[in-house]
Design goal:
Layout lengths: L4 H23 L3 H21 L1 H16 L12 E2 L16 E2 H11 L3 H26 L7 H26 L11 H26 L3 H32 L6 H26 L3 H8 L3
Antiparallel strand pairs: 1-2
Helix pairs in contact: 1-2, 1-3, 2-3, 2-5, 3-4, 5-6, 5-8, 6-7, 7-8, 7-9, 8-9
The structure holds protoporphyrin IX containing FE.
Amino acid sequence: MSLPWDVLAVYAALAVWAGLLVLGFRRRTFGPFFGMGIAILLVLNVRYLVSGVGVAIPAFVGIYDVFDNLGLGRDEGAPALAQCVDNACSVWGDRYTNHPSWGVAFYDRFVNGPQSRRTMLYTHIFFNSIAFVLMHVQLARPGTGPNRSQHRLIGKISFAAITVGTFFAVWLSTEHGSVSEYGGNLSMVGFWSMSAVVYGSAIKSVITARSGDVAQHRVWAIRYAGAMWGAFWLFRVMLVITGPLLRNYESASLLISIWFSAPLGLLVAETFRRRFSGVTSSNAERQLTPA
Ligand code: HEM
């Protein structure tokens, strides 16, 4: 059996990335960690747009096969594992015949589903990836000083991108009521709450910018960035840990990611903001209060 080099390359990249995180804590600078996180995200997401769901989804499911089958015999199943037709939903061939059941449903929904559903997924991925990259450009080049007009323009493009991306995420999740492997209605409402956390913080960031409240704009921009990192990276990293731990309960690991990734990301960003900038929300508010 040939090895899935793309999945192995992702593991190697994730190992280097984890090293950068450790280094970041030691040196108190996270630039390389953030840069590599954006780069891996782009490689994973561009693959959907270039090669399509038939190639990208088996590679994505393949990342989790190794973890979800840890400690199990070759054909040993579990309530949260399932098989797929011709074992086509993962890149591992005969090595793994049981896959996370959400992965089997994910493959079936998009590879065997209608073209309109695939188009919605590509649109979601395209616009959310643009918003993800642009939010870093905005944080790196704040709108004070000479960057003001450029910051405003990119802010508008970025907000339009997250609006379209989130709209299609909400639309896709309205179909989840009948997808028991995702958790049915709990998945649907969970994705709506995830959208509310991400989009709500984006809206707060826009409102504070428009009212000229620079300090609060910065606070909400950082919270939005945290929610976005949570929605993408924490969501997927949490599955690596919860997948094998909770494989006796179908959809439990996915539901935990759906409900908690974005709020957790926001919380982490807020904690770092307070610790590293030394500015608490109440401090910021005080700074804004006219004398
Ligand atoms: C507002 C927060 C988000 C919500 C509610 C959300 C929701 C969703 C939904 C519903 C799906 C399809 C699952 C299905 O219907 O079977 C999906 C897949 C996907 N989303 Fe999101 N998403 C969010 C944020 C993001 C972000 C920020 C990115 C990229 C920067 C992203 C990239 C993807 C990708 C690549 C997939 C395909 C699965 C994968 O390979 O990871 N999403 N998302």
